[in-house]
Amino acid sequence: MLNVVIFGAPGSGKGTQSDLIIKEFGLDHISTGDVLRAEMKEGTELGKIADDYIVKGQLVPDELIIDMLAKVLDGKEGSKGVVFDGFPRTILQAEALKKMLNERGTDVTLMINLHVEEDELMNRLLERGKISGRSDDNIDTIKSRLDVYRLQIAPLAEYYMKEGKRYAVNGVGTIEEIFERIKEIINRYL
Ligand code: AP5
Ligand code: MG
Fold first, then answer.
1. C-alpha–C-alpha distance, residues 38 and 21, integer Å
2. Of the residues 22, 36, 132, which should be mutated to test ligand 1's pocket, given the most ligand atoms within 8 Å of the CB?
3. DSSP-based three-state secondary structure for 28
4. Contact 60 CB / ligand 1 (< 6 Å)
5. CB of 113 shorter than 6 A to ligand 1
6. Following CA atoms 154, 156, 159, 164 in sequence, which dihedral angle do they give, to the nearest 10 degrees?
7. Nearest in space to 52 (alpha carbons), one of 67, 36, 76, 35
């Protein structure tokens, strides 16, 4: 399997680039943010809990996310590979992912780390907020998401660096230019 972790700050283009990667390489896409938003829309127990964290821009607790991810992954049996978008976000999640994949005879192949400076992230998310309807695309929540990224999430890059799997990619430019940079890296593993 070709398993790609796409990692980066809110608004760095994880979702946008995931869509292109799955089409190009025939992979499945798991976005924990999308799964949580679907749960919120359906009003499930998990959705109600997640809502409280997401509107504040905080991380949903690890155990809830890991359980949820395991269930989604079970539904992807027979897949050529998965793009993990927005997961893992903590060391605990990264270790859980490794364990889940190892149990299925596979592992994370590589991690793409998109880099975009904060002014640009803020502009992109405020712009998206005009139409997205996302409860976290407002200035206060964006600020706390950026803080949470800087303090709690960004240090996870080190974990994949130590495993020799992390690729830093400039996330500024046109969507196509950025995709070319990513494609060049993924192609090395085919
Ligand atoms: P999640 O849904 O993952 O949101 P996020 O990380 O804040 O990232 P976004 O989805 O906002 O941005 P993106 O990087 O996907 O960028 P996009 O492609 O949309 O998580 C939401 C919340 O759920 C978290 O805050 C947390 O509470 C919870 N959660 C989720 N996963 C969790 C986990 N594992 N553990 C704990 N909690 C979890 O692009 C952004 C905008 O920019 C778009 O409008 C796009 O069109 C535009 N754009 C994209 N590329 C470019 C470009 N090159 N140039 C100009 N504009 C561009
Ligand atoms: Mg996204």
1. 22
2. 36
3. strand
4. yes
5. no
6. -40
7. 36
pTM for the whole thing?
0.98
Measured CA to CA, the distance from residue 169 to residue 90 in angstroms comes to 20
DSSP-assigned beta bridge partners for residue 5: 84, 111
Q: Ligand 1 atom 21: the closest Cα is on which residue?
A: 33
- Catalogue the active-site residues: 14, 89, 128, 134, 145
Quick one: which ligand is closest to 131's CA?
A: 1
pLDDT in tens, 89-120: 999 999 999 999 999 999 999 999 999 999 99
pLDDT at 147: 98
Q: What is the mean pLDDT of residues 25-46?
A: 98
> How confident is the model at residue 17, as a pLDDT?
98
Alpha carbon distance 107, 118 (integer Å): 31
pLDDT at 103 (0 to 100): 95
Ligand 1 pocket residue status of 166, Cβ below 6 Å? no
**Does domain 4-35+81-187 correspond to CATH entry 3.40.50.2000?**
no
